[in-house]
Description:
By secondary structure, the protein is α+β, with helices and mostly antiparallel strands.
Amino acid sequence: MIIDKSNKFKTTIISVRFKEKITKENVGLRALLPNLMSASTNVYKTRQALSEALEDLYGASINVRTTKTGLISIMEFSIYFINQSFTEEPVFEEALEILHEVVYGHKNLPKKEFELEKRLLLEKIASFDNDKTSFALSNLFETMFENEQYGIRTSGKIEDVKPITYDILNRYYKEMLKTNDIDVVISGQVDESLLKLVSKYFIPRNNLALNPIDYEDKQIEMIKNKVDYDTISQSKVNIGYRLPIRYKETLLPAATLFNTALGGAVHSRLFVNVREKHSLCYYIGSRFDAFKGFMYIYSGIDKSRVDLALKVIDEQIEDLQNQPLSETELNLSKESIINALIENQDSQSASLANLYLQTLLNNPLTLAEQIDKIRAVTSKEVQAIAKTIKKDTLYILAPEVK
């Protein structure tokens, strides 16, 4: 079990997470399955019945979803409820019973809800394309990671979900329960007796030796350039770079600082110079993914100013490659990261997510240790990181030509 013991919060979280490697074959199944499992069980025949049971448990709530962490697909079933210390009623065990029912309370999946849940998922996937910022980023990743596993979209695509039948999903559900690794994750004010109770309902399993980090690399022979057109008013300009630093590597804190200085904070080069100084974009930022070792810049730019914006963006990176950060920029970047780490401790969900990530990576670091690693980074180390990045893909979603 993964346990975040804390007296800071009035809520207990119990989460059961089924893990396996994400593949093109399982992505649609895992996107559809959690919603169908929570739609109806042997005890709670309808969502309304489940909602009423949760309401009776002092307004508890359940969250089901499938996410991707690096190369791992994680199907998550979580219940949030009042700490046992606030009442003499057996809320902890009642919460366990409800969560157990959602996960295991199906001799077979509910057949009559299958078509509805499938239709809702297909509509959700279709509506994703209406959010042009997300749509453009997704297309960047698909283009950049063509023929690489990392390009698989967590929610699946329409062609991943349409072929799924009830029988296929029902078989997969039973197979998933038998074969997936299982993490049991708990946050809150819990003692040994309560943890022993958890073991009656959920048993962790770790057979698959899953590694979330993707070490697949490629040689960049030519930068990919792709432009699509849509009925939008501004160009969505996204650039993908290979930044070959991954979790658990010595240079990870320096890579994190490089991204923060470039486009990860309000003092960053992209924000100050591209957006504020030159007024070239509506929004701009950068993100670094240490599961794969890549960074991307995302922006919204007036279609007539795209070429100039790209020139100024390139200049920001070249400047970071050619000379070290000033002490002021370095310290602002460090404080930005450290403040985010500290703020995470005030959010139960964020604190638990941080603990879970470290467990997945087998890299347990205290908050103080994480802060010390950030503080130790030098300007020269950030400059060295800047010199390692290589532009891979430029993807633009542009306004239709009239």
